[in-house]
Amino acid sequence: MSSGEKPEFLALAELEDVLRQVPGERAAGRRRAQRAEAALGGDRDVVGSRERLTELEAENRWLNERLGAARVRLDELVKRLQFLEEQVAVESTGR
What we know:
The structure is a single chain. The protein is mostly helical. The chain has one domain (about 5-95). It has two helices and no strands. Helix 1 (about 5-40) packs antiparallel against helix 2 (about 45-95). It starts with 6 loop residues before the first helix and ends with a helix.
């Protein structure tokens, strides 16, 4: 961190980066869901459908884990930003 960069601005920038990624992740998940729906809709093979369903369930678990990790990271960033905002408020009232 350079001397001109305040920690609260760095935390805010990090939070903004995370939030910018959310729509892309959501859109990608929606596209995968649409492809899965299309694949299941045209497939009359029960064994193939079950295999595909198993794959989709595994992918869903993986995506839910990623989403959970992103939520934890976002919560950490929000808490960090709140702390820094409190520090700035304390410093400004102390002057």
